[in-house]
Amino acid sequence: MRRPPAVLRALSVTLVLALVLGLVLAAPASAGTRIKDIAALQGVRDNQLVGYGLVTGLQGTGDTLRNAQFTEQSLQSMLDRMGVNVRDARLRTRNVAAVMVTADLPPYATVGSRIDVTVTSLGDATSLKGGTLLMTALSGGDGAVYAAAQGPMAVSGFAVGGQAETLTQGVPTAGRIPNGALIEREVPGAFRDLPQLVLELKNPDFKTATLITDAINAYGLARFGRRVAVPRDQRSVVLHRPRDIAQTRFIAEVGDLTIMPDTPARVVVDQRTGTVVIGRNVQISTVAVTHGNLTVRVTETPEVSQPEPYSRGQTVVVPRTEVTATEQKGQLAILGGSDLQTLVKGLNQVGLKPSDIISILQAVKTAGALQAELVVQ
């Protein structure tokens, strides 16, 4: 085989170097966050739907009609509409359950589109596994019907039990129907009818709103030769669409712009689970911290005093209590962090449990050394 000329080899090496250099230069740009991930367009939102229906086909795990009278009344009304008269009969089926059906109607959804629905039990049914939802009307907040749901449910949880033991995994009284609702009515309004294009930040912040404005204006100067964004406050940024671009394309191009959002210094503490989340900008002024645990144990070991034979005495219980107290040694550590890594390293040096870290953070905040907002859930 003939080797390629030196000129072609040099050209190929140059192309490879250019490609690698382009990837390296493009890496920092992809490290940012897209605007559409941290902000949403005002007026473009979902609408919640809710409905009441019946699930049939259960294997004896439905509602007890004697306890859930609304299930019996619903079943009688449904059979009456189908021409079956059961008003004077006492129904005893266990294959039917009353449920609540919820769904989110996407913005600008058209008639004939399908959406997912969630089904949850309303009575004393033990499981909805294997059930089928009958046609259920889904209404919005205005009372109008926007969709109708029907179909077999997918239930991930199960419950199996006997007389002495019951095994339950997941939630067997809740299920989901993918594409289970058919949209019958559209929400009034269209995207082109929006009076103004306004981006609303999901986490309001003045600096983040300014960064979004600067990025959009830089894009507008390069694309249209003028600025197209004005910050209104820490929550919203107003957009002015140029006339030579469609509204949909304009929002799509603006949403793909990337920035590095700013986050406030915040520490979130969940005392129920022992979870501590520390933000990137959290700082602690230099303080000395020591922490020790005091454990008090009270043990009751009552003794029985038995009298001698023929002594005419009585058997009595003599209380015996033993109290012990132990206190662990507390290490004195200096905490002070200019960044998150230094702060975490200082907390790890003390060697504490999550509950102890929560107590220390609360004490440091009281001392005025925690330069962040402490949120306790």
Quick recap:
A hairpin with a 4-residue loop joins β15 and β16. By secondary structure, the chain is an alpha+beta fold. The model is unreliable at 6-30 (pLDDT under 50).
State the helix count.
7
Strand content: 25-35%
When the domains are counted, the total is: 3
Low-confidence residue ranges: 6-30
Count of strand segments:
24
State the distance separating the first and last CA atoms: 73 Å
Strand order of the largest sheet: 3-4-5-10-7-6
Average pLDDT: 79
Describe this structure in words.
With 377 residues, the chain is α+β, with helices and mostly antiparallel strands. The protein has 3 domains: 129 residues, no CATH class; 60 residues, no CATH class; 81 residues, no CATH class. The chain contains 7 helices and 24 strands. The chain has a 6-stranded antiparallel beta barrel. Strand 4 and strand 5 form a beta hairpin. It is flat. The relative contact order is 0.11. About 7% of the residues have low confidence. Keywords: Bacterial flagellum, Cell projection, Cilium, Flagellum, Periplasm, Signal. Assembles around the rod to form the L-ring and probably protects the motor/basal body from shearing forces during rotation.
Secondary structure layout plus pairing:
Blueprint: H1 6-30, E1 33-34, H2 35-38, E2 39-41, E3 47-56, H3 69-81, E4 97-105, E5 114-121, E6 132-139, E7 145-152, E8 158-161, E9 166-169, E10 174-183, E11 197-201, H4 206-223, E12 229-231, E13 236-239, H5 247-255, E14 258-259, E15 266-270, E16 275-278, E17 283-289, E18 294-300, E19 303-305, E20 316-318, E21 321-327, E22 333-337, H6 340-350, H7 354-366, E23 370-371, E24 373-376
Parallel strand pairs: 15-24
Antiparallel strand pairs: 1-14, 2-11, 3-4, 3-6, 4-5, 5-10, 6-7, 7-10, 8-9, 11-13, 12-13, 15-16, 17-22, 17-23, 18-21, 19-20
